[in-house]
Design a protein that fits this description.
The protein is mainly alpha-helical. It is built from five helices and four strands. The longest helix has 12 residues.
Length: about 100
């Protein structure tokens, strides 16, 4: 955003086969509360700016917990040890009556 990279730029991440534009990634990030779209374009949220300045992992977790359903519960499940994404979905469904449609 600060570098004024065009939003139609394809972003590559080492080790990933993903082929998304910068705008597609912004759209995916929007529910996390890190970015917002204005009439003038995309910008970082105040929370994201504060986190980047503070470099505080607990503040990051608070942002994610506030904006992503089941985030804290996933962390609690992961504290018990390694688990598959399918098992995390099963816990969400059986214990919290939550489901999602994204790919596993």
């Amino acid at each position: 955003m600060k570098n004024k990279t065009p939003i139609n730029t394809h972003i590559t991440i080492e080790g990933s086969r993903s082929n998304n534009t910068l705008e597609q990634l912004y759209i995916r990030l929007r529910p996390t509360g890190f970015v917002k779209k204005l009439i003038t374009g995309w910008e970082l949220s105040e929370e994201a700016e504060k986190w980047l300045i503070s470099d505080d992992d607990l503040y990051l977790a608070a942002i994610l917990s506030a904006n992503i359903r089941y985030f804290s519960e996933i962390l609690a499940v992961l504290r018990k040890g390694p688990i598959t994404s399918r098992a995390i979905q099963d816990v969400a469904s059986n214990e919290y009556k939550l489901s999602w449609k994204t790919k596993i």
